Each structure stands twice: as C-alpha cells, then as structure tokens.
Amino acid sequence: MSELPAEPLSRRDRARADTVSEIKRTARKVLVERGVDGLALRAVAREMGMTAPGLYRYFDSREDLVEHVVADLYDELSDVLEAVRDAAEPATPGVQLMTVARAFRQWATTHHPEFGLLFGSAAEGIIPAEDLHGPGEHLPQVASRRFGGVFAELVARIYLEQGFPVPDEDELEPALRTQLTEWCAKLPVALPLGVMHVFLSCWIRLYGLVCMEVFGHLRFALDDAGPMFEAELRALGALLGVAGEYRPPAA
After folding, report:
1. Potential cystine with 143: which of 65, 67, 74, 103 (Cβ 3.0-4.6 Å)?
2. Per the database record, which ranges form the HTH tetR-type domain (predicted)?
3. What residues contact residue 200 under an 8 Å CB cut-off, 6+ apart?
C-alpha cells in the first residue's frame, strides 16, 4: 500500500517556517560578525527588526537557538563532505577519504567563526556538553554523528575491503581498552577494537592539525599549513594501506 502524500503546509505554517529559517540565518550572521559572545537573542532580534520577546515565539531560549544553528552547520558541512565524496574519481574509499579530508580543511579554514562554534569550546559555554557530544538525540548530537559517520564509514570500508594493520586488543592499555569498548558498543556496526583505535588515532591527527591551523596555533612554525596537511594525508594513507591512492591536490 503506497503512502499517502504529506499534507501541504498551511499558509500560517509556511510563514512560521520561513521566519524560523530567517532567524537562524540572522543568528549565523551575528555569530560571524560578533563571535559567540555576541550571539544574543537581543542582537538577532535587532538585526531582524523584531523584539527579543518576539523571538521566544520561535525559540525557547538562546540555548535553543544555538542548538539549531549548530545542527544546521553540521548538516551544511556534512552536505559538503558527502558531495565531494560522491564526486571523487576513482570512487575508492582511499581516494574518497583524502578528498573528504581536504574538503573538511577547506571548510574549516574559510569558516572560522562557524568552526569555532562546532569544534571549539565556545558552544559548551551555551549548550551543556552532554547535549553537544553525548549519546542522546538532541539536534546537535544527531547532526554531529552524521558528520563523524562520513569519516568513520570510509575507514571501515577500507578495513573491510582490503584491511590494514591493527593492534590486538591485548596490546591496548587496559584503561584505553575499556573506553574503546564502551564507545564501540554505541556504534551501529561492530568492528574490532584495534580498528577503532587506528581510526581514532587517524582522526586525532587530522582533526588536531586542522584545529591548530584554524585557531592559529601553528604560526610559530608555519605560515602555510597546507604542505604539512598533505604530508599528514600521505602518512595516514600509509597507515591505512592506501598510500598508493594519494593524489596531489588540484591547483
């Protein structure tokens, strides 16, 4: 039996949805111009020609608005990564992973305020940490899992299709083994702890380098972190057994 078509939105519902979208766009504009400390409901309302109490008809609090902005940013970033992944040629997981990694760095280095809200400590001053990074179903948590899944799926495909060296479980420190076990229990696909150890190690190197570049922590040594990023990509390719799939970035 085919599903019935969704009921069309009423004019009132369409107007409300349009206003919600405008509020979130305006909040992002305020974030970019004034930073997270300036992202107040009053500032957003002023930009829109509304009153701050008027915004409460659409968002319960500043925290509620920021959660929606964070979720939208994660979805935007995930859209970018999934698009370049699907356009990569050849469509092997190794080539796709390196293409996605470059796209992540490109987005991060051209969206400093947004990156800071997603990956810095700023959002944790507004949204409880468990609502950002915990296992629940808050909007930011769901959206961030989609983002993380782009990288995790590609590493899992490399392992399942061709394999790469991983440590035995008994080689891992007991405290680390316990934490990895708890993390793996939350994942939709069961993989050996050694695989997840390698994935986490790769992610720390990739994400850590991008964070250091965005937040200016590499300026003591590097004016241009691009070559260092490419060197890390080659090293990660070797670690995952796909070094032969490394291609220099397009000019």
Report:
1. 74
2. 17-77
3. 180
Tokens for 216? 């200016």
Per the CB < 8 A criterion, the answer to whether 68 and 24 are in contact is yes
Count of C-beta atoms within a 10 Å radius of residue 38: 12
Q: Which of 31, 93, 116 is nearest to 65 (CA)?
A: 31
> Cα(78)–Cα(82) distance, rounded to whole angstroms?
6
Per-residue HEC secondary structure of 54-67 comes to: HHCCCCCCHHHHHH
In order of their start, the domains of the chain are: 10-59 (1.10.10), 61-240 (1.10.357.10)
Specify the long-range contacts of residues 4-9, CB closer than 8 Å, at least 24 apart.
none
- Residue found by looking up tokens 């940013």 in the block: 73
> What angle do the packed helices 226-239 and 93-110 form, to 10 degrees?
150
Q: Cα–Cα distance between 129 and 70 in angstroms, integer?
A: 13
Distance CA 16, CA 100 (A): 35
Query: What is the Cβ-side half-sphere exposure of residue 195, based on CA atoms within 13 angstroms?
Result: 18
For residue 214, the Cα-to-chain-centroid distance in whole angstroms is: 15
CA distances from 73 to 6, 51, 156 (A): 27, 25, 25
Round to whole Å and give the CA distance between 152 and 205.
14
Q: What is the pLDDT of residues 141-174, one digit of tens each?
A: 888 889 999 999 999 999 999 999 999 999 999 9
Give this prediction's pTM: 0.87
CA separation for the pair 41, 39 (Å, rounded): 7
Specify whether the CB–CB gap between 81 and 148 falls below 8 A. no
pLDDT tens digits, 108-137:
999 999 998 888 765 555 555 555 555 556
Helix (H) or strand (E) holding 233: helix 226-239
